[in-house]
Amino acid sequence: MLRMGKLTDYGIVLMSYLASKTYQQHSAHTLSDAVKVPLPTVRKVLKALSHADLLKSERGAQGGYNLTRNPKSISVAEIITAIEGPIALTECVSDESRCEQESHCDVQTNWTRINDAVYLALDEVKLSDMLVPQSPDISPIHFYPSASLHNGDLHG
Fold it and tell me: Which of 1, 37, 78, 142 has a CA 20 to 30 Å removed from the CA of 9?
Protein backbone atom coordinates (compact mmCIF):
# COMPACT_ATOMS: atom_id res chain seq x y z
CA MET A 1 0.00 0.00 0.00
CA LEU A 2 1.26 3.43 -0.94
CA ARG A 3 0.78 5.95 1.86
CA MET A 4 1.84 9.46 2.78
CA GLY A 5 3.00 10.09 6.31
CA LYS A 6 0.86 11.91 8.86
CA LEU A 7 3.06 15.00 8.66
CA THR A 8 2.33 15.26 4.93
CA ASP A 9 -1.39 14.89 5.58
CA TYR A 10 -1.15 17.64 8.20
CA GLY A 11 0.82 19.77 5.74
CA ILE A 12 -1.95 19.55 3.16
CA VAL A 13 -4.56 20.34 5.84
CA LEU A 14 -2.56 23.37 7.04
CA MET A 15 -1.91 24.62 3.51
CA SER A 16 -5.60 24.21 2.66
CA TYR A 17 -6.59 26.19 5.73
CA LEU A 18 -4.12 28.94 4.84
CA ALA A 19 -5.39 28.95 1.25
CA SER A 20 -8.93 29.48 2.48
CA LYS A 21 -7.88 32.51 4.52
CA THR A 22 -5.16 34.27 2.51
CA TYR A 23 -6.23 37.73 3.70
CA GLN A 24 -4.58 37.40 7.13
CA GLN A 25 -1.44 36.20 8.90
CA HIS A 26 -1.77 33.05 10.99
CA SER A 27 0.26 32.20 14.08
CA ALA A 28 1.30 28.63 14.78
CA HIS A 29 -1.00 28.69 17.84
CA THR A 30 -3.99 29.85 15.78
CA LEU A 31 -3.31 27.22 13.12
CA SER A 32 -2.95 24.49 15.74
CA ASP A 33 -6.32 25.41 17.23
CA ALA A 34 -8.01 25.76 13.83
CA VAL A 35 -6.96 22.38 12.43
CA LYS A 36 -6.87 20.51 15.75
CA VAL A 37 -3.25 19.35 15.41
CA PRO A 38 -0.82 19.61 18.36
CA LEU A 39 1.31 22.77 18.35
CA PRO A 40 4.73 21.00 18.21
CA THR A 41 3.57 19.07 15.13
CA VAL A 42 2.20 22.22 13.49
CA ARG A 43 5.52 24.00 14.11
CA LYS A 44 7.48 21.11 12.57
CA VAL A 45 5.28 21.07 9.46
CA LEU A 46 5.33 24.88 9.12
CA LYS A 47 9.12 24.80 9.27
CA ALA A 48 9.32 22.26 6.42
CA LEU A 49 6.82 24.19 4.30
CA SER A 50 8.66 27.47 4.94
CA HIS A 51 12.00 25.87 4.08
CA ALA A 52 10.48 24.79 0.74
CA ASP A 53 9.35 28.40 0.08
CA LEU A 54 5.68 27.46 0.15
CA LEU A 55 5.10 29.63 3.22
CA LYS A 56 6.51 32.93 4.37
CA SER A 57 6.70 33.90 8.00
CA GLU A 58 6.88 37.26 9.69
CA ARG A 59 7.93 37.76 13.28
CA GLY A 60 6.30 40.15 15.68
CA ALA A 61 2.90 40.96 17.15
CA GLN A 62 1.24 41.21 13.73
CA GLY A 63 3.35 38.42 12.25
CA GLY A 64 2.52 34.87 11.33
CA TYR A 65 2.43 32.54 8.34
CA ASN A 66 0.94 32.94 4.90
CA LEU A 67 1.30 31.35 1.46
CA THR A 68 4.10 32.57 -0.79
CA ARG A 69 2.00 32.09 -3.94
CA ASN A 70 -1.55 31.87 -5.14
CA PRO A 71 -3.22 28.53 -4.20
CA LYS A 72 -3.82 27.92 -7.93
CA SER A 73 -0.06 27.76 -8.50
CA ILE A 74 0.89 25.46 -5.60
CA SER A 75 0.59 21.76 -6.37
CA VAL A 76 -0.02 18.90 -4.00
CA ALA A 77 3.20 17.38 -5.36
CA GLU A 78 5.13 20.40 -4.05
CA ILE A 79 3.59 20.01 -0.59
CA ILE A 80 4.36 16.30 -0.49
CA THR A 81 7.93 16.91 -1.66
CA ALA A 82 8.43 19.63 0.96
CA ILE A 83 7.65 17.20 3.76
CA GLU A 84 8.48 13.72 2.43
CA GLY A 85 11.29 14.60 0.05
CA PRO A 86 11.27 13.73 -3.67
CA ILE A 87 8.39 11.50 -4.73
CA ALA A 88 9.83 8.05 -5.44
CA LEU A 89 7.68 4.93 -5.48
CA THR A 90 10.64 2.57 -5.57
CA GLU A 91 14.30 2.78 -4.65
CA CYS A 92 15.48 2.84 -8.26
CA VAL A 93 13.61 6.05 -9.14
CA SER A 94 15.07 7.89 -6.17
CA ASP A 95 17.99 10.29 -6.57
CA GLU A 96 19.71 8.40 -3.76
CA SER A 97 19.16 4.87 -5.06
CA ARG A 98 21.01 2.12 -3.24
CA CYS A 99 19.33 -0.81 -4.99
CA GLU A 100 21.69 -3.69 -5.65
CA GLN A 101 19.56 -4.84 -8.62
CA GLU A 102 19.67 -1.50 -10.44
CA SER A 103 22.49 -2.36 -12.87
CA HIS A 104 20.63 -5.37 -14.31
CA CYS A 105 16.96 -4.66 -13.60
CA ASP A 106 14.62 -5.07 -16.58
CA VAL A 107 11.69 -3.14 -15.05
CA GLN A 108 13.50 -0.01 -13.86
CA THR A 109 12.47 1.97 -16.95
CA ASN A 110 8.85 1.07 -16.33
CA TRP A 111 9.09 2.10 -12.68
CA THR A 112 10.40 5.45 -13.86
CA ARG A 113 7.39 5.82 -16.16
CA ILE A 114 5.01 4.88 -13.34
CA ASN A 115 6.71 7.27 -10.93
CA ASP A 116 6.50 10.08 -13.50
CA ALA A 117 2.79 9.39 -14.01
CA VAL A 118 2.11 9.55 -10.26
CA TYR A 119 4.15 12.74 -9.96
CA LEU A 120 2.31 14.36 -12.89
CA ALA A 121 -1.07 13.39 -11.41
CA LEU A 122 -0.13 14.92 -8.05
CA ASP A 123 1.29 17.99 -9.77
CA GLU A 124 -2.03 18.54 -11.59
CA VAL A 125 -3.86 18.78 -8.26
CA LYS A 126 -3.53 22.35 -7.04
CA LEU A 127 -4.02 23.62 -3.52
CA SER A 128 -7.04 25.58 -4.77
CA ASP A 129 -8.60 22.25 -5.86
CA MET A 130 -8.44 21.05 -2.27
CA LEU A 131 -10.83 23.86 -1.25
CA VAL A 132 -13.63 22.80 -3.60
CA PRO A 133 -16.27 20.65 -1.88
CA GLN A 134 -16.36 17.15 -3.29
CA SER A 135 -19.30 16.36 -5.50
CA PRO A 136 -20.10 12.93 -6.93
CA ASP A 137 -20.95 14.53 -10.29
CA ILE A 138 -18.13 17.05 -10.73
CA SER A 139 -14.46 16.72 -9.92
CA PRO A 140 -12.46 19.93 -9.49
CA ILE A 141 -9.35 18.01 -10.53
CA HIS A 142 -8.57 17.78 -14.24
CA PHE A 143 -5.87 15.46 -15.55
CA TYR A 144 -4.06 15.81 -18.84
CA PRO A 145 -3.07 12.31 -19.96
CA SER A 146 -1.23 13.62 -23.01
CA ALA A 147 1.37 15.33 -20.82
CA SER A 148 4.62 13.58 -20.00
CA LEU A 149 7.65 14.20 -17.85
CA HIS A 150 11.06 13.79 -19.47
CA ASN A 151 14.22 14.61 -17.50
CA GLY A 152 12.17 16.78 -15.13
CA ASP A 153 10.52 18.78 -17.96
CA LEU A 154 6.82 18.67 -18.74
CA HIS A 155 5.94 17.86 -22.34
CA GLY A 156 2.54 17.73 -23.93
Answer: 142
User: What is the pTM assigned to this prediction?
Assistant: 0.81
CA 112, CA 156: separation in Å to the nearest integer?
18
Residue-wise pLDDT for 35-86, tens only, equals 999 999 999 999 999 999 999 998 887 889 999 999 999 999 999 999 999 8
Per domain, the residue ranges of the chain are 6-67, 73-155
What's 6-67's CATH class? Answer: mainly alpha
Q: Indicate the SS3 state at residue 116.
A: helix
Return the H-helix or E-strand segment holding 55.
Answer: strand 55-58
Please measure the distance between the N-terminal and C-terminal CA atoms of the chain and give it in whole angstroms. 30
DSSP category for residue 59 = -
Residue 50's contacts (CB-CB under 8 Å, 6 or more residues apart) are: 56, 57, 65
